[in-house]
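pls design
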């Protein structure tokens, strides 16, 4: 069975770009969960209001197990709900984080609706992806990287360090946007 790296994070934190670069550097397989779900029709329903599909885990998980078991290369699985990958398969879980002000700019650039921007920024502030990873994996497997002022290549280089066992500075729990925004006096802006 291959080494599996999970990359999660709120939309706009850089998951897809980073996962793609990382896969090339380590000659691995890049799996974008959202694309896999759409391509293989592994969803239950379409949520029109939120403009998304609801993944059918009863179909998606067996497909992921099949891919993982048959691969001879490292696998990078990315998505904002990547913590669905069973812990027994995961070697490392990376959560990409981005300062809410920067995330807002990135999501506006991607033409997200205002309600979707607000929902994702609030999820980032509250650390939803980190929380979900903590509920899915052993704490020792989880790392957070602040991508706010890093290029995708810089982020990939940090992941490579982590994979080499040199990721102590990136252990989960060091990024706290609530505290940062409170200190900046901007927390209420994101929760109006």
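designed seq:
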């Amino acid at each position: 069975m291959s080494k599996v790296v999970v990359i999660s994070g709120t939309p706009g934190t850089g998951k897809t770009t980073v996962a793609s670069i990382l896969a090339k550097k380590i000659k691995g397989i890049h799996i974008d969960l959202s694309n896999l779900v759409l391509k293989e029709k592994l969803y239950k329903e379409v949520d029109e209001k939120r403009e998304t599909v609801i993944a059918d885990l009863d179909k998606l998980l067996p497909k992921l197990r099949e891919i993982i078991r048959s691969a001879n290369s490292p696998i990078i699985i990315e998505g904002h709900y990547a913590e669905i990958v069973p812990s027994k398969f995961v070697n490392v879980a990376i959560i990409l984080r981005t300062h809410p002000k920067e995330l807002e700019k990135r999501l506006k650039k991607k033409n997200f609706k205002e309600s979707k921007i607000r929902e994702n920024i609030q999820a980032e502030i509250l650390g939803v992806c980190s929380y979900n990873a903590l509920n899915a994996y052993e704490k020792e497997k989880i790392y957070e990287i602040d991508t706010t002022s890093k290029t995708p290549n810089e982020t990939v280089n940090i992941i490579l360090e982590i994979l080499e066992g040199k990721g102590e500075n990136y252990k989960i729990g060091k990024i706290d946007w609530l505290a940062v925004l409170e200190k900046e006096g901007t927390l209420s802006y994101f929760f109006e």
